[in-house]
Amino acid sequence: MDKHLRVPTLWSDLQGMGWMFPLPIVVLFVAALYIYITDAGYVKPLILTEVKQALGILPLPFVSLWIIGLFRDLVKPDGKELLLSLPVNELTFGLLRVFRVLGLYLLVFWVPTSYLMAHARETITAADIYFPMVAILFLVSLSFALILLVKSVEICLSIIGVYCTMSYMMRGGGMGTLYVFHWSLPKPHVASASVAWTLAVGSICLLIVGQWLLYKREYLMR
User: Fold this and answer.
1) Please, which pLDDT band fits residue 2 given cuts at 50, 70 and 90?
2) How is the chain split among helix, strand and coil, in percent rounded to 5?
């Protein structure tokens, strides 16, 4: 008999998300279709700036729904005690599932994004490739740490919503280089590489915090 229960399959995780799974996909493809139609991408080259604004502002924060949906059973008062009492491997139950979902979202994200960018009139730079991925990684890491820290789906969504709204409205003002919308709305006089490094380091720290909280079953039980 195995010491630990096997990690849920990816399909099981997606099913467990409920409505949180399809919504980010719908938002992403609606945004892509909107910019393709309004910019008449079927008859002329698209404007890269508008493509980035369409796909790099509203769709990005919706990835948080997948991570919150992944761990929401751990914060439900009526079911978390049973779940937390199971002999699971915290590392595979935490980081492995997070990276698995992250990989799937990146795959989904690049389907419309790569098509639209390939039909843009401007030249694609390296930042157009790595920056959205780093921003998505940061939002995934933030969601992972927050849902286990605050232990509330509603509070977690509110904090992420406020952070993203303030980042967008202030264009990263007061946040230094911790700015997730730099790809679509660049912060003046700030190098993309500096923002990317800040988000990458922040992601690593948040992933460590989230995984550490997952080991603290007594805290999650409260």
Assistant:
1) very low
2) 70, 0, 30
Contact assessment for residue 203 and residue 138, using Cβ atoms and an 8 Å cutoff: yes
CB of 181 closer than 8 Å to CB of 168: yes
109 or 76, which is more confident? 109
Token reading at 11:
């399909």
Other beta carbons within 10 angstroms of residue 93's beta carbon come to 22
Tell me how crowded residue 189 is: count the other CB atoms within 10 A of its CB.
Answer: 5
Q: Which of 48, 66, 86 is nearest to 144 (CA)?
A: 66
DSSP state of 46: B
Q: Which residues pair with 5 in a beta bridge?
A: 88
Overall pTM > 0.85: yes
| Distance in angstroms (rounded) separating the CA atoms of residues 164 and 171 | 10
